[in-house]
Amino acid sequence: MRYITKTDLLIVGMNSGYLMVGIGLMCLAPLIVDLVYFEFDLISFILPSAISICLGIFCIKYLNSYSKKKMRLKHGMIISSFAWLWAGVIGGLVFTLATPLAPIDAVFESVSALTGTGMTMFSNVEILPHSILFFRAFEQWIGGLGVVVMIISILSKPGTTSSKLYESEAREERIKPSTKATLKKTIEIYVIYTILGIVLYLLAGLPVFDSICNTFAIISTGGMSIKNANMGFYNSDLVYLVSIVLMILGATSFLIHYKVISTRGKSLIEDLQFKLIICIIAFVTLMLYYVSNIVPIDLLFTVVSALTTTGANVASPAAMAGWPSFVLICLMCLMLTGGSNGSTVGAIKLVRVITFFKGIYRHILEILSPSGRVVPIKLQGRQIPERVVAQSGNYITLYFIFILISWALFCLWGYDPFDSLFSVVSLQGNNGLDLGIISGHMPPVLKIVSMINMWTGRLEIYPVLISLRAVFELFKR
């Protein structure tokens, strides 16, 4: 039986055209910075943009007859998977043209920025043109909400197409009844927090350019810095505290942000995921403080960065590699967990972890209970459907399978098992904290594996698996 037909692929191709146009427009944003700093490297941005826009328009015009075909969730997931890959390739072309990076390293850099992972192939970012530094930060900002989400909010019309594409990026929460209205309000909140971050960094003494790029990187929980020492370059507790606040805001559900004003802050205080984020940060920081001699502000910053999957750091990878193993294991657990559902974070996410453990506890109670008793699972007073419990367990299992396979490959190439596991957990969770393994010196195979980790982690695996099944269908007789 064929699950993907020629018509399905043509529907995907037509709708992908709009995303290709949007990705092309994204590449033009750094031109303003390029001109302001008199760098005049216009071709590095215009050529990739033109390629993406022209191909996108061709798909829209040539396949326009399929625009009225009903889009299903499988179409949305394939489109989303392709869009993230295409954005990575086009962004990689920008880096290839503007910097000395090899093509595979350039695509890695772009995928890392877009997925909010924040690992870099550059050995010295401070010598890069301002336009490239801005482009990396802008990619993180776009990827924070999602490439597809940002583009369909501007180019797509209300209806089934917007809804399915929204769901394809693992987003289910609705701020407003319609998807289009939800997207509009989400972006409004995102822009407001971005402006707030820029102002706070300026008040903390950072230059305008640094304030903009750091805000883009931190509020999106991307963490890719414009300095070699990341946020540690500024050596300022005030800058660290501003960053911590922005990381927590980025890791909190946009639905909760929307309700803050109407509920006078009660939605934030009463939200289980937000309360857990604060409690976990406080507990883990205090625990690690008493078992290590790490500077408290450095420890707090790193704990927040790990849990929110930001990956920004104040301690260098070499310094972190010297931390006690217990501290690094705790950081790995935080990187696996992640923040709130419906935010900019990666990893498994708190709501899945909570649901998973509630399912285990329910199973224990059912064994202890009288025969035939059904124990419901509730989250904040609402019963969780059995389907959701099963999906959480399935996703967590898949997540660890991807980590296990990638970890084995790193070990096969001779990397230290513990350091490799730390890096793979970071890659799969789109975190970015590293102990010095991820660099341009890695074998090409491991760079590709790392990109797959980042790609699947950002799309939450299922869209990628469905897309691979679609490719398999093409070769099926």
Compose a concise summary of this entry.
With 477 residues, the chain is mainly α. The chain has helices spanning 6-26, 31-36, 43-62, 73-98, 103-114, 130-145, 147-155, 160-168, 179-203, 208-219, 237-250, 254-262, 266-270, 272-291, 296-307, 317-321, 325-337, 350-368, 386-412, 417-428, 444-459, 462-474, and strands spanning 378-379, 382-383. It is 67% helix and 1% strand.
Q: What structural keywords apply?
A:
single chain; 477 residues; mainly alpha; two-stranded antiparallel ribbon; 1% strand; globular
3D structure, described in words:
The protein is mainly α and 477 residues long. It has 22 helices and two strands. A two-stranded antiparallel sheet has the order 1-2. A hairpin with a 2-residue loop joins β1 and β2. α4 (73-98) crosses α8 (160-168), α5 (103-114) crosses α6 (130-145) and α5 (103-114) packs parallel to α21 (444-459). The radius of gyration is 22 Å and the shape is globular. The termini are close together.
